[in-house]
Design a protein that fits this description.
This protein is mainly α. The chain is built from eight helices and no strands. The longest helix is centred in the last third of the chain and has 18 residues.
């Protein structure tokens, strides 16, 4: 693991979550190595790592706090899925702090017309200040889908 890149780390965590495989020594090692490289993580790696730990209900506080602070610094670089996954993951683990919550809400409003349907759904589950606007767009997305069926 000494030579793992940020992508290797997030992909390994994601793979564990897909298999519902929780191996404490591995998760601790991934968390430690990820924290040492957190400044090198791209937004997708940050959100994928947060989502993997959230799916496993593995609330590694120091790692998730590092992800939160790094995400805050890079929030304008997050795409629709990254915003939604990060918000849902950290909220699900009770670690979505107010500064990041506000930044995600602002960025979601800025990109609201470009968000994907699944992103609206995940963001609607998180108590953001833009929840009413997100729900309006979610209803529209569902209506468009239903009209196409």
């Amino acid at each position: 693991m000494a030579q793992f890149s940020q992508q290797d780390l997030s992909t390994t965590a994601w793979s564990c979550s897909k298999m519902a495989f929780v191996h404490k020594p591995l998760m601790e090692s991934l968390a430690s190595k990820a924290r040492s490289q957190i400044s090198q993580f791209e937004p997708q790696g940050l959100s994928n790592t947060a989502r993997a730990f959230a799916h496993l209900l593995y609330g590694h506080g120091p790692l998730l706090e590092s992800i939160s602070s790094s995400s805050l610094a890079k929030i304008s670089e997050f795409d629709s899925q990254g915003l939604a996954n990060t918000a849902w993951s950290l909220d699900n683990l009770g670690l979505l702090d107010q500064p990041l919550r506000a930044a995600i809400s602002s960025e979601a409003i800025r990109k609201i017309s470009d968000l994907e349907g699944a992103s609206y759904a995940l963001l609607a589950d998180v108590a953001l200040s833009c929840q009413a606007e997100i729900e309006v767009h979610l209803r529209r997305a569902v209506s468009r889908f239903m009209a196409s069926v």
